[in-house]
Design brief:
Layout: H1 3-10, E1 21-29, E2 32-35, E3 42-45, E4 51-56, E5 59-67, E6 73-80, H2 91-100, E7 103-107, E8 110-114, E9 121-126
Antiparallel strand pairs: 1-2, 1-3, 1-9, 3-4, 4-5, 5-6, 7-8, 8-9
Length: about 130
């Protein structure tokens, strides 16, 4: 069997609740909250089993993802373009925080990605 075919057979399916494109709208870290002024520049999608794709301002990133029990997930490693984004861009922070996420949940229609040890949470709304 080819390695690619074997990987496709073992890739974890995307949970139905995660299908579609999600816009990053905010992040919390400790007591701090960041509201994303331009959520259309920061999106996340799971285009197929075992894959994640990001639009991180002027960059794009993609990598592997596996889903476990009770909302557990493992993302990465991800490959990312390295275009020079405008000053104030959250491109690198967004990609790093997504890759560090260890759990997902849906709360009131929003996708929440949680960092290990309660270090922070990314909040997304489904693109319409």
């Amino acid at each position: 069997m080819l390695a690619g075919a074997q990987a496709a057979e073992t890739a974890s399916p995307v949970p139905p609740a995660l299908q579609g494109v999600w816009r990053w709208v905010s992040a919390t870290n400790g007591g701090n909250r960041l509201s994303v002024a331009t959520p259309d520049r920061y999106t996340l999608a799971f285009p197929e089993a075992g894959r994640i794709a990001l639009k991180a301002d002027c960059n794009r990133a993609a990598g592997g993802v596996t889903f476990g029990d009770d909302g557990a997930l493992k993302i990465g490693p991800m490959a990312m373009t390295r275009a020079m984004c405008p000053p104030g861009s959250l491109s690198d922070r967004f990609a790093q925080d997504v890759e560090r996420s260890t759990h997902w949940s849906i709360d009131g229609g929003a996708l929440l990605l949680s960092q290990p040890g309660g270090a922070g949470t990314l909040r997304f709304l489904r693109e319409r």
